Fold:
Amino acid sequence: MADVVEERPGLLRMLLRRWPTAAALVAAVLIWSDVGDLTDTIADLGPLVLLLALEYLILNQIGRRGASWPVVGGMVVVIVLLDLLDVVSLSTALVVAALVLLVAGAVTGTPNGRASFGIQAAGMVGFGAIALVGLAVDPDLGRYLIAAGWLAHGVWDAVHWKLERVVSRSYAEACFVVDIAVGVLLLFAV
Structure:
């Protein structure tokens, strides 16, 4: 009995360290619970691949990994406002924001340097292309492209987590879990 009591603080510490995973699993369940037909699901989840890459590009421009969660919170507010105002599509807004950041980074540089900017720019272009093509093609094919984008971004998160670059480790961990969960959802559950 004494061994069980002694192990609890270790278990509690471990669970507290994994709060990003727990938060991500809650987010994944919320995303999964909102899945509709294939066309609607692709229309909802496709632009978010752009968003995932844009978050990294923004944080690279800021140069402060500690800003990861505030940036995500701010982006959620912007998405809600875009949805409420219904003035411009999320995809259009994300592409415009990405282009502005790409040009600004190319012209003025970034706090993390040219190499980091080049990697984030390539990620933005690559993930953006996957998302936009996935949204433009037949939903049956789009599903696999968008799933590939989510799964590939999960790998992107894992690399950034391991290297401790651009985003906070807690954000990279949470994003990895959500990305893999959504990718699997698109492959097998829709």
